[in-house]
Design a protein that fits this description.
It is rod-shaped and about 160 Å long. Helix content is about 60%, strand content about 15%. It folds into 3 domains: about 140 residues, no CATH class; about 90 residues, Helix Hairpins; about 160 residues, Histidine kinase-like ATPase, C-terminal domain (Heat Shock Protein 90, 2-Layer Sandwich). By secondary structure, it is an alpha+beta fold. A hairpin with a 2-residue loop joins β7 and β8.
């Protein structure tokens, strides 16, 4: 029995004693009134008899003697003894003796009955509470040991029910946390495996190129420059992949605090174009941006509620993908609608298939038409960023004006 249970039992015992005493006092008062009434009834009869048989007797004096203090009655204590009645041990009215005996027996019986009933009830209550607390303690021990299968008894009400409800919520939270932890571990395992696989090829190629330079110092200048160029390409690919992985890992770990505000769309798109101009020159691709007006929308000269830095990162990655797959042109447009705003990025390269459109935002996915330097992270990173800014990306093929290609639609919900 713990200290709390002992304290409860002591409090209960004190409360019980007080209640029994109050009940006995109340019953004693009722019984006293009944005995007093019986006594006065006999005195009335005696006084009336004396008055009738002895008219000269002063009845008032007798009554005053009946109601006077015992100290005023000195000398009268031996009168009843002449008739066999002892003043110190028995009552002059025999019925009062019987009533006293009856009332005493009733008081004892009532006290015993109350004690038994209260003991049984309180014992059942204590047993019930102890059992419930033991069950709750056992359930908490199960939860602490990793077993989250908690069965809450919803048919009861009261403080214990509230406690069980909170434990049930705790069990669900712990179970979800454990499941998320397992999922995170699996994702981390897969991510490490993918990273290892992605880095293995450029690192191996880089090591081979460096070994060739070391083992063949007399290589012709043309071959040497080719090997150095390959090594630089592998180094750039590793650096690009590491930078992308660092950004993705920060997003996954919620280590980035997005500072969202209304940012002009022109600013986001122009900055993104600046980031890919060198790639456009290298690939010979023209890039253009216009605010469009459709029958469903209005001219898009508004803003997007987003994080400026990361949204530029997302749009830049999609532009980079479009440039890498374009034949000669990449077009950007922005349109505002009543419920959302959208940026469209079109390239005139090979149309994307429906199957590939469903996989293109998967981390480390590289399609059949992907460039050699692709690491399969850029679009996944863009998708994660846009989703944090209350948007989503759609990849699809298009056909218009005798031209077909691939279109990325970034849609931001208001």
């Amino acid at each position: 029995m713990n200290k709390y249970s002992k304290k409860k039992r002591i409090i209960f015992a004190l409360v019980y004693i007080v209640c029994v005493c109050l009940i006995i006092v109340f019953m004693g008062m009722l019984q006293y009134r009944r005995i007093s009434y019986n006594y006065n009834l006999h005195i009335n009869a005696v006084c009336d008899t004396i008055r009738q048989e002895y008219p000269d007797v002063d009845v008032n004096r007798i009554i005053r003697l009946m109601s006077s203090n015992s100290s005023d009655l000195t000398g009268y204590d031996d009168v009843l003894s002449e008739y066999g009645i002892e003043s110190s041990t028995s009552s002059a009215i025999e019925e009062n003796n019987k009533l006293f005996a009856i009332y005493l027996a009733v008081d004892i019986a009532v006290a015993i009955l109350i004690s038994v009933v209260v003991f049984i009830i309180m014992n059942r209550i204590f047993v019930y509470w102890d059992k419930k607390l033991e069950d709750i303690t056992a359930d908490l021990a199960k939860i602490n040991s990793g077993d989250y299968s908690y069965d809450m008894n919803t048919g009861e009400e009261g403080k214990l029910s509230i406690l069980e409800s909170e434990i049930y919520k705790t069990a669900i939270t712990c179970r979800e946390a454990a499941e998320n932890s397992r999922e995170d571990k699996e994702k981390l395992k897969e991510s490490l495996s993918d990273i290892s696989h992605q880095l293995k090829t450029p690192i191996t190629s880089l090591l081979i190129n460096l070994e060739n330079l070391e083992e063949y110092p007399d290589l012709p200048e043309e071959k040497r420059m080719l090997i150095v160029g390959n090594a630089k390409r592998d180094t750039n690919k590793i650096n690009q992949m590491v930078q992308m992985l660092l950004k993705l890992s920060r997003l996954d770990a919620d280590a980035i605090e997005f500072v969202q505000k209304d940012v002009p769309v022109d600013h986001i798109i122009n900055k993104s174009i600046e980031n890919v101009l060198a790639l456009c020159d290298l690939k010979g691709v023209d890039i253009s941006y216009t605010n469009t007006e459709t029958s469903e929308g209005k001219q898009g000269k508004g803003t997007i509620f987003c994080d400026e830095y990361w949204e530029i990162e997302a749009v830049s990655n999609i532009l980079k993908n479009g440039i890498e797959h374009a034949e000669s042109t990449v077009r950007i447009s922005f349109t505002e609608y009543e419920m959302y705003s959208e940026i469209q990025i079109e390239n005139d390269g090979d149309p994307i298939s429906k199957e590939e459109a469903g996989k293109i935002f998967t981390r480390y996915y590289r399609g059949e038409t992907s460039v050699i330097d692709s690491v399969g992270i850029g679009l996944s990173l863009a998708d994660s960023i846009v989703r944090r800014d209350n948007g989503y990306i759609i990849a699809e093929s298009y056909e218009k004006d005798n031209e077909n290609g691939t279109r990325f639609t970034i849609r931001y919900m208001r």
